[in-house]
Amino acid sequence: MYENAFKNLGMVLPFDYFIAYVLRTLEVAPSQLHPNGWAAMQASKVICRALALIPSVPIFLNHYTTQVGQNISWVSLSPLLKESLFNAYTASYKVLKNLFVKIRALGRASFALDSKPLPLYWRLPYKFKGLSKGKLSLEDRANL
């Protein structure tokens, strides 16, 4: 994992349901997700808390698509046109690439609160194009 996810964005282990569900849906390892993706997820959770809403992965993913770097590199979350929740931080993360933290689970410890396995190895993920509004539950559509 990138150190800034913990130091600057307040990420903690084990990951909560929201974070784990996003990683599983996108089929990416935590270290494979670009720091902007972590920032967007954290910002979404803060907004939901402020509005007294439970963070919804389908609502969050309704606003984003993935962009896969060359050579099975980082996976970035990119806002869908006219659906952006936040402005992306576009400055370079070159310095942060050197600030990597290796995390190892002890015993049978899990990286997620629900103890379901997370993808831990980098792979070529499929191209995620966001969730259409038609795939959202009635409750999620009402909360859009």
From TrEMBL:
Residues 6-65 form the Transposase (putative) gypsy type domain. InterPro entries: Transposase_28. It comes from the Eukaryota. This is Transposase (putative) gypsy type domain-containing protein. It comes from Mucuna pruriens (Velvet bean).
